[in-house]
Design goal:
About 55% of the residues lie in helices and about 15% in strands. The chain has about 210 residues and is of the alpha/beta class. It has two domains: about 5-130, Rossmann fold (3-Layer(aba) Sandwich), CATH 3.40.50; about 150-205, Orthogonal Bundle (Arc Repressor Mutant, subunit A). Strands 2-1-3-4-5-6 form a six-stranded parallel β-sheet, sandwiched between helices. The termini are far apart.
Length: about 210
């Protein structure tokens, strides 16, 4: 049985940390918590978790400072921003400082678990609503561009048709493939782009002008 991924929580709200801890404790090991940048930087250096869940707004310099100093001193520690903020300035600051992904606190539990797993494996994970901005501002940060480029030509075509509102049956007829094959392509697209359903895929395609 493989060892569990270790996670460190950084948030200045105790209830927020408690909530996240309760959501992830069955899957991951929480090895520490901090409520400000100074304590976070010191404790992360001592405990060297695999993943840091990092709030953006913190006393002592914010998540940007934590991301910058930890990524420089301990590049093996991977950071995932977890915030209520959708402000492009906040996203850009923490990603530019070294965070591998950015997840909104409104995300469901399964998306949070998936995001932690991806981050631990060195793969990017961004809330769909933020993916367009990140790709535009940081084309090489976190691998969103690579995610898009990983689609096969047929998967990209299926994604475009989904964005245009076609049903699976319509897509099958246009591409001369079965509905089952369309469903298989859609599943692959969702997996590669870290999305949950066809509606998110359609939104993603439109945001990236893939339609």
């Amino acid at each position: 049985m493989s060892e569990r991924i270790t996670v460190f929580l950084v948030d200045d709200h105790e209830l927020a940390r408690a909530g996240v801890r309760s959501l992830i404790k069955d899957r991951f090991d929480v090895v520490g918590e901090a409520d400000n940048a100074d304590a976070a930087i010191e404790m992360i250096g001592e405990r060297l978790p695999q993943v840091v869940l990092l709030d953006v707004h913190l006393p002592g310099g914010g998540g940007r400072r934590v991301a910058a100093e930890v990524s420089q001193a301990h590049p093996e520690v991977r950071m995932l921003a977890l915030s209520v903020s959708e402000d492009p300035g906040d996203v850009g600051a923490v990603v530019g400082a070294g965070a591998l992904g950015y997840l909104l606190k409104s995300a469901p539990r399964e998306r949070l678990l998936e995001a932690i797993q991806h981050t631990a494996e060195g793969r990017a994970f961004f809330s769909p609503a933020l993916a367009g901005f990140v790709l535009e501002e940081f084309p090489d940060a976190g691998g969103i561009g690579e995610d898009i480029r990983s689609l096969t030509p047929r998967e990209a075509e299926v994604l475009r048709l989904i964005a245009r509102g076609y049903t699976y049956r319509d897509i099958g007829e246009r591409l001369f493939i079965s509905v089952k094959t369309v469903e298989s392509h859609v599943s692959s697209v969702l997996r590669k782009l870290h999305l949950s359903n066809r509606h998110q895929a359609a939104d993603f395609a439109r945001e990236h002008h893939l339609d």
